[in-house]
Design brief:
Number of strands: 2
Strand order of the largest sheet: 1-2
CATH architecture: Orthogonal Bundle
Structural class: alpha+beta
Helix content: 55-70%
Oligomer: single chain
Distance between the termini: 40 Å
Radius of gyration: 19 Å
Length: 82
């Protein structure tokens, strides 16, 4: 059921998000015993952190293309979400 920290770090974003969604569904169902709910919540927190790290890393890699007066690509600059 639960993955170790090492196993979690090998998950890609999509798989981590899928597992997190699965955990949320189980917890929301109310059919999980208390001890298992605590373990699932803990795993979910680790997965949430992992997904957040992966998103931040992806955002840092995104660059925007700057155009010259003619609309032709001129250079790239770091992406600024603001």
């Amino acid at each position: 059921m639960s993955e170790t920290n090492e196993d979690l770090s090998t998950l890609n974003f999509e798989d981590a998000l899928k597992r997190l969604e699965e955990i949320v569904r189980k917890l929301e169902s109310g059919d999980v015993p208390l001890d298992q709910s605590i373990a699932l919540y803990s795993e979910g927190e680790k997965l949430r952190g992992l997904c957040q790290q992966r998103l931040e890393a992806a955002q840092a890699k995104i660059e925007k293309i700057t155009l010259d007066r003619d609309g032709k690509p001129q250079a790239t600059a770091p992406f600024d979400a603001d």
